[in-house]
Amino acid sequence: MEKIRLTLTGRQRGEDGEETVTETRTIADYCERNGSHYIIYEEEAESGGSLSKNTLKLKGKLLELTNRGAVTSRMVFEAGKKVMVDYATPFGCLKMELATRSLESSFQDGKTKIRVDYTLYAEGRVLSHCVLDIKFAKYFPIPAINDKVSAFITSGKADSTGAVSKLSTPS
């Protein structure tokens, strides 16, 4: 497993047309195994307090999102397909249908982007139209950045892009 910087941005538009945007930024674990990409991360519940452990699995044109915590669910996204989703909460299980309109992924220059466009239904009625953007790249620990900042302060030299031209360790 390697560490990655993960950003998830969710956009939901309800029947009333109102859009809600949520964003999660975290450090996650990533690995590729047997042609599948796995991302494992923790997320604090919106109400605060409890953590959920989440797993994203991308294999070809199929994305699976599993949440385990106060709320448990397994959502499977595949363009043009509808699937049933059990959304288990402490108050009971909600049965929903998920229809994926599109699923796109790109891997370029060490950065990965995934976009899922889908609709959630409950009892045959549209709950919301959703777009989930997932972006991740390799994580570089802060000490490496701190070393460069310290070197910049010590040397006082940087090029036009702000990059340090001479690295030295402060005494």
- In what range is the share of β-strand residues? over 45%
Give average pLDDT, whole number. 82
What kind of sheet is the major sheet? 10 strands, antiparallel
Trace the largest sheet across and list its strands.
6-5-4-3-2-1-10-9-8-7
* Spans of at least 5 consecutive residues with low confidence: 153-171
Radius of gyration, rounded?
20 Å
Oligomeric grouping of the chains: single chain
Number of helices: 1
Helix content: under 10%
Number of DSSP E strands: 10
Structural class: mainly beta
Instruction: State the separation between the terminal residues, measured CA to CA.
Output: 35 Å
> What is the overall silhouette?
globular
**Helix and strand pattern:** EEEEEEEEEEH
Walk me through the structure.
The chain is mainly β. 8% of the residues lie in helices and 64% in strands. The chain contains 1 helix and 10 strands. It has one helix at 142-155; strands spanning 2-14, 19-33, 36-44, 51-59, 62-68, 73-78, 82-89, 92-108, 111-122, 125-138. The radius of gyration is 20 Å and the shape is globular. Mean pLDDT is 82; it is low at 153-171.
List the helices and strands and how they pair.
Blueprint: E1 2-14, E2 19-33, E3 36-44, E4 51-59, E5 62-68, E6 73-78, E7 82-89, E8 92-108, E9 111-122, E10 125-138, H1 142-155
Antiparallel strand pairs: 1-2, 1-10, 2-3, 3-4, 4-5, 5-6, 7-8, 8-9, 9-10
Summarize the structure in short:
The protein is mainly β and 171 residues long.
Essential attributes:
171 residues; ten-stranded antiparallel β-sheet; 8% helix; globular; disordered C terminus
